[in-house]
Write a structure and sequence with these properties.
- By secondary structure, the chain is α/β, with parallel strands linked by helices.
- It folds into 2 domains: 122 residues, Rossmann fold, CATH 3.40.50; 94 residues, Orthogonal Bundle (Arc Repressor Mutant, subunit A).
- It is built from 8 helices and 11 strands.
- The strands form 3 sheets. A 5-stranded parallel β-sheet has the order 2-1-3-4-5, sandwiched between helices.
- A hairpin with a 2-residue loop joins strand 8 and strand 9.
- The longest helix has 15 residues.
- The model has no long low-confidence stretch (mean pLDDT 88).
- GO terms for molecular function: phosphorelay response regulator activity; transcription cis-regulatory region binding.
- One of its GO terms (cellular component) is cytosol.
- InterPro entries: CheY-like_superfamily, OmpR/PhoB-type_DNA-bd, Sig_transdc_resp-reg_C-effctor, Sig_transdc_resp-reg_receiver, WalR-like, WH-like_DNA-bd_sf.
- This is Two-component system OmpR family response regulator.
Length: 228
């Protein structure tokens, strides 16, 4: 099981049922948790608790999530902000990201999806907080650039390592070829999307995933790994 000891998360949502669900799940994972039910309290808790991650609802009475996000970014502190929204609208996503949010999750969402996004933010912004991370039969160690599968160290090229790591960390989430290209190869990659298929095929060979049970293909959508 992954250890998140020392990682602090502030939950900001005015719905007690949502807060209780998230707080229980995140505490069970080992995170340190504080809760705020409105924007003003969120800013006060942030100043005293100094969280690494703020999970922030958009629709709240008084100061909404957008205003809280803007205020948090104005402090200059290194905080990862994941916004929660009940609206799957492009405008909300663009506004949140423009104001400085790092990611967003649309309600209703699964806990495993949120956890994957939390780990991704920690990897990007606070890599020193995590060492070896376990996902099902996989062990990831960024410090050694090593992935262990079924207790065997995998022989991977740097790109294979980055791709498999990205898929594992986003397990349960459908990843399109274009999204994979952006995140693994980079926005300025000038090649064809088919390069993703080539590397997926190589990873499946190394994982002995002949029936595509580990890395699933969703026709017309992309790829998904299901570990939880």
């Amino acid at each position: 099981m992954t250890s998140f000891k020392g990682v602090k998360i502030l939950l900001v949502d005015d719905e007690p049922n949502i807060v209780q669900f998230l707080e229980l799940g995140l505490l069970n994972e080992g995170f340190e948790i504080k809760v705020a039910y409105d924007g003003d309290s969120a800013l006060l808790e942030t100043a005293s608790f100094q969280p690494h991650i703020v999970i922030l609802d958009i629709m709240m009475p008084g100061m909404n999530g957008f205003e809280v996000c803007h205020a948090l970014r104005a402090t200059g502190d290194n905080i990862a902000i994941i916004m929660l929204t009940a609206k799957d609208e492009v405008e909300d996503r663009v506004k949140g990201l423009t104001l400085g949010a790092d990611d967003y999750v649309v309600k209703p969402f699964s806990f495993s999806e949120l956890l994957a996004r939390i780990v991704a933010r920690l990897r990007n912004q606070f890599p020193n907080l995590l060492g070896e991370v376990v996902y099902g039969p996989f062990r990831l160690d960024d410090r050694r650039k090593e992935i262990v599968y079924m207790e065997q160290v995998m022989e991977l090229s740097p790109t294979e390592y980055d791709l498999l790591r990205f898929i594992i960390m986003n397990n349960g989430i459908v990843l399109s070829k274009s999204h994979i290209l952006d995140k693994v190869w980079g926005y300025h990659f000038g090649g064809e999307e088919n390069i993703v298929e080539v590397y997926i095929r190589s990873l499946r060979d190394k994982l002995n995933d002949k029936e595509h049970r580990l890395i699933r293909t969703l026709r017309g959508a992309g790829y998904r790994m299901d570990l939880l």
